[in-house]
Task: inverse folding
C-alpha cells in the first residue's frame, strides 16, 4: 500500500444529528421518528448530492409545518451536530502523515456545511485532496465519485487503502480495485495499518 483514502464522518469526525436534536426534543422516541421520517437519512443524502439547503428545508417545512422550527434548525444550527474529532483516528492520520504516506479523503458531505468542518478541524489540511460529494453532485457508493478521485489524484487503486465506516461504500471501493477496510474503531484500524506496513508494528491508537 502506497497511499490511504479516508472517509470523514464516522471515521475522523464524530457527526450525529442527535447532538443537536436532543436539545430540541424532550421525547426521545419523537426525536427518533423525526430523524427517520422527516429529516431522514434519505433527505440528508439529497444535501450530500448538492441540493441547496434553502430549497430542501423550504420543501420539507411545507410538508411538515408542525416541525418547521426543528427542520430549520437542520440548517441554522447544523454545526451543533458535530461532536468533535475521533481522537484515535486523527492520531493515526498524523502518524501516517509523519511517515510521508500520501493521504486523501472521499466524503459524502454537503458542500455548504463542509466549509464549517474545514474551519473547525485543522487536520483536514493534511490531505493532499478531499473529494466532496456535494461539490461533485455524485456520492458514494456510486463508482463515478471513486473514479473522479482516482483520476484527479492519479491513484492506483491496487496500491491504495480505502477506509470507510459504511460497508456498502467499502464494497464499492473493492469492486474498483482498492484495498478496502471497514472502520471498526481506531484500535482495529491501527492493527490493519501495521499489518499492511503503513505504520510500525505494535502501534496502538491513543497509546
Result:
Amino acid at each position: 500500500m502506497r497511499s490511504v483514502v479516508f472517509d470523514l464522518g464516522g471515521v475522523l469526525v464524530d457527526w450525529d444529528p442527535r447532538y443537536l436534536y436532543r436539545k430540541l426534543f424532550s421525547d426521545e422516541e419523537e426525536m427518533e421518528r423525526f430523524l427517520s421520517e422527516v429529516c431522514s437519512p434519505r433527505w440528508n443524502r439529497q444535501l450530500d448530492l448538492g441540493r441547496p439547503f434553502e430549497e430542501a428545508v423550504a420543501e420539507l417545512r411545507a410538508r411538515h409545518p408542525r416541525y418547521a422550527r426543528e427542520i430549520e434548525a437542520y440548517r441554522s444550527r447544523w454545526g451543533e451536530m458535530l461532536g468533535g474529532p475521533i481522537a484515535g483516528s486523527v492520531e493515526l492520520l498524523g502518524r501516517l502523515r509523519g511517515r510521508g504516506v500520501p493521504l486523501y479523503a472521499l466524503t459524502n458531505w454537503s458542500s455548504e456545511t463542509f466549509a464549517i468542518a474545514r474551519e473547525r478541524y485543522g487536520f483536514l489540511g493534511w490531505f493532499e485532496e478531499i473529494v466532496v460529494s456535494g461539490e461533485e453532485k455524485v456520492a458514494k457508493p456510486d463508482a463515478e465519485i471513486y473514479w473522479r478521485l482516482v483520476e484527479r489524484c492519479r491513484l492506483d487503486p491496487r496500491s491504495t487503502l480505502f477506509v470507510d465506516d459504511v460497508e456498502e461504500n467499502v464494497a464499492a471501493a473493492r469492486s474498483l480495485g482498492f484495498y478496502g477496510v471497514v472502520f471498526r474503531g481506531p484500535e482495529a484500524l491501527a492493527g490493519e495499518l501495521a499489518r499492511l506496513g503503513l505504520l510500525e508494528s505494535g502501534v496502538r491508537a491513543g497509546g
About this structure: The CA atoms of residues 102 and 116 lie 24 Å apart. The radius of gyration is 18 Å. The first strand starts at residue 3 and ends at 6. The chain is about 45% helix and 15% strand.
